[in-house]
Amino acid sequence: MTRLILWTLLFALLLIFGGVLAQLMQQDAGVMMITWNGWMLETTFWSGIAMLIMGGLMLMFVIVVWRKIAPTNLLCN
Fold it and tell me: Residue 1 has what pLDDT?
């Protein structure tokens, strides 16, 4: 029963956090510009943060899959 209460509290906190973020997004979207080697990406701040987080998660996923498929000393240590 206590595990269910903990999961319910975690879910409620995530909903509150999401609501606060949604309010921040509506008030001021902001602008983020990323430049690299002559390439330029200009997007809203929140979309840029989401892209950076998803890029990091994808990199972690690729490393985990690489370690499972072809373990090497370079990635396993």
Answer: 67
